[in-house]
């Protein structure tokens, strides 16, 4: 990734999906934990909003009283979904969820994590998938940039561009799946959006 244009970012990600992850099918299989996490996050936050689970309601009341920051809210939501410890893939999924929730607050600082709209929950699912892809790509690109001896500022700019590209592709894939006339479960929506996005990346 020697230049800063979008097509260069797309080619770099495409090469990583094909070679680093072994193609779309293998990539989707390796990232299934994040797809599960995105679906679980959506289901949990829907329950939070609807107030149908007494245990979750107690946690919401406690969290509201404590006035949690975006970072603390993210950590607490994740702790309700994924237990402490776990495999490397589980930790990767937790990290992506944390980034996703914080990004949601960055996009809209007035976000109320306890009363998200369906659109916000869908966006959060997409962010979770996108950040997991980005985190994996970032590790590979870091080695490439080191070989090219890019300055710290150039590296930062390139990674920001890659992140933006991934977020857009996953957002569009999520929107397409949700707008389909075929009824699907939240898990199926998450799985299909991830696979569709990976197919786009791999085709570059």
Plain-language structure description:
It is a single chain. The two termini are 13 Å apart. Helix 1 crosses helix 8, helix 2 (24-30) packs across helix 9 and helix 3 (32-50) packs across helix 9. 79% of the residues lie in helices and 0% in strands. By secondary structure, it is mostly helical. The protein is globular, with a radius of gyration of 17 Å. The chain has helices spanning 6-20, 24-30, 32-50, 54-66, 70-81, 88-107, 118-148, 152-178, 186-202.
What is the overall pLDDT average?
87
Q: Number of helical runs?
A: 9
Report strand %.
under 5%
Please report the total strand number as a whole number.
0
Main beta sheet: none
- Regions with little confidence, pLDDT below 50 for 5+ residues: none
Element-by-element helix/strand order = HHHHHHHHH
The percentage helix is: over 70%
Measured between the Cα atoms of the first and last residue, the distance is 13 Å
Shape: globular
Structural class: mainly alpha
> What Rg do the Cα atoms give?
17 Å
Secondary structure elements and pairings:
Blueprint: H1 6-20, H2 24-30, H3 32-50, H4 54-66, H5 70-81, H6 88-107, H7 118-148, H8 152-178, H9 186-202
Helix pairs in contact: 1-8, 1-9, 2-9, 3-5, 3-6, 3-7, 3-9, 5-6, 6-7, 7-8, 8-9
Q: How would you concisely characterize the structure shown here?
A:
The protein has 9 helices and no strands. It has helices at 6-20, 24-30, 32-50, 54-66, 70-81, 88-107, 118-148, 152-178, 186-202.
Features:
single chain; 204 residues; mainly alpha; 9 helices; 0% strand
């Amino acid at each position: 990734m020697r230049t800063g244009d979008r097509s260069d970012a797309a080619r770099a990600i495409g090469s990583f999906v094909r070679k680093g992850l072994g193609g779309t099918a293998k990539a989707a299989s390796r990232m299934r934990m994040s797809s599960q996490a995105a679906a679980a996050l959506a289901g949990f936050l829907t329950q939070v909003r609807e107030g149908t689970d007494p245990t979750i309601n107690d946690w919401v009341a406690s969290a509201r009283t404590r006035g949690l920051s975006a970072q603390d809210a993210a950590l607490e939501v994740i702790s309700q979904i994924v237990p402490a410890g776990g495999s490397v893939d589980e930790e990767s999924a937790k990290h992506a969820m944390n980034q996703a929730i914080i990004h949601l607050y960055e996009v809209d600082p007035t976000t109320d994590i306890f009363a998200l709209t369906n659109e916000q929950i869908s966006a959060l699912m997409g962010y979770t998938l996108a950040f997991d892809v980005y985190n994996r790509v970032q590790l590979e690109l870091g080695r490439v940039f080191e070989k090219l001896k890019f300055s710290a500022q150039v590296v930062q700019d390139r990674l920001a561009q890659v992140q933006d590209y991934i977020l857009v592709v996953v957002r569009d894939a999520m929107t397409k799946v949700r707008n389909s006339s075929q009824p699907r479960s939240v898990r199926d929506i998450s799985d299909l959006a991830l696979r569709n996005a990976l197919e786009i990346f791999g085709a570059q």
